[in-house]
Structures are given as C-alpha cells and as structure tokens.
C-alpha cells in the first residue's frame, strides 16, 4: 500500500494526552479546540510525499522538529524512519482513525 492510498492519515496531528489510556495514545487534528494545558503538545505531520515531521516541546515550550519518512506497511501499520542524527525509527500501530482523531497503540 502506498502513502497516496492512505489520505486519511495525511495532515497534522497533536497529542491529546488528556484522552490517553494505559494502552493507547490519542492524537487530534491541529485545529481541534484543545483545553489549556500546562505543558506543550507533541505532534506529528504526515505529508502526502512521505515526509514525516515529529514535533516535541523544547525546554521553552517552542516546538522542535525531527524530519523523517513515513510508509504504510500494511493494514494499521506505519513505519517511521529518521536519519541517524534526527531520532530513532519506529512503527506505529493505528487502532482507530477518523477525520479528527487518531488512536495508536503505546
């Protein structure tokens, strides 16, 4: 399956840590009306060309980006790869994906 065949995942997602459970991590679209939070939100951006950007809050809460690639590895599996200096590669197991909510396994 190619990235062009998975348009629902394309776009920017922010971590909705208020909705996490012991086994899942929840993300919402970046235009979701999040409640105020005392800490910055991590996020990720899946671009149609296969570019992946991981956003993490820096020490001053400004986002820091790590740029890599994403590939659909099969039903519900996404492989994230980064150059060695940008971060470690990982797999995401998508448990549920709707227009405004993405739930992945921890």
What does the model show?
There is one protein chain. The protein has 106 residues and is an all-beta fold. It has one domain: Lipocalin, CATH 2.40.128.280. 0% of the residues lie in helices and 49% in strands. Strands 1-2-8-7-6-5-4-3 form an 8-stranded antiparallel barrel. Strand 4 (51-57) and strand 5 (63-74) form a beta hairpin. It is globular. The chain starts with 10 loop residues before the first strand and ends with a strand. The mean pLDDT is 91.
Number of strands: 8
CATH topology group: Lipocalin
Helix/strand/pairing category: mainly beta
Strand content: over 45%
The CATH architecture classification is Beta Barrel
Biggest sheet character: 8 strands, antiparallel, barrel
The outline comes out as globular
Order of helices and strands: EEEEEEEE
- What's the helical proportion of residues? under 10%
- N- to C-terminal distance: 23 Å
Biggest sheet: strand arrangement: 1-2-8-7-6-5-4-3
Identify low-pLDDT runs. Answer: none
Number of domains: 1
- Our count of helices gives 0
CATH class: Mainly Beta
Radius of gyration: 13 Å
The overall pLDDT, averaged over residues, is: 91
């Amino acid at each position: 399956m190619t990235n062009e065949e998975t348009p629902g995942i394309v776009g920017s997602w922010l971590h909705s840590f208020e909705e996490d459970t012991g086994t899942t991590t929840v993300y919402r679209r970046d235009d979701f009306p999040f409640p105020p939070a005392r800490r910055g939100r991590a996020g990720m951006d899946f671009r149609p060309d296969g570019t992946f950007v991981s956003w993490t809050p820096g020490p001053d809460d400004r986002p820091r980006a790590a740029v890599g690639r994403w590939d659909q590895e099969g039903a519900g599996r996404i492989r994230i790869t980064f150059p060695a200096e940008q971060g470690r590669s990982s797999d995401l197991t998508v448990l549920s994906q709707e227009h405004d909510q993405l739930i992945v396994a921890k």
